[in-house]
What we know:
0% strand; coiled coil
Amino acid sequence: MLTTLQKPKTTPAAGIKRKASQMTDDAAGPAAPPPLVASGPSAEAPSASPRTPWGGLPKPKGKPQRQHYHSELAYQEALAEFNDADISWIKKEQATEWCKNDADTLVKAQDKITELKAEADAEATATQNWVEQARLKRDAERAVAANAEAEGVADATN
């Protein structure tokens, strides 16, 4: 059993340290495989030195926020006004289109009503004419029957 003051025994293979003269000149591990996709000029840094990192395009230098706050605010307000005007124009166009469609529908309905009224008037006139002709025919038949009856009575008295 080991105590905290005792060191564990090492095996000769694990415990032997090599000196620089005993180091082997083994070959290094296999090289990294080439990339599957050829890297184009856009993927490489523009610098010829591989140690220089490519930081991307430089950021544009702008004015500090306090210097262009009012112009940015004016731009945002103008953009909001334009969007409001655009939305109201779209709504007006939609309402106009709906009104045109409604007006077209109303005109078609009025035309249909006029057409149906004309048909109803024609049918009423035809029915009225038929009733008048039937009444005249009935009156004529009654007159003929009355004449025949009167002649029959006259013949019987003669």
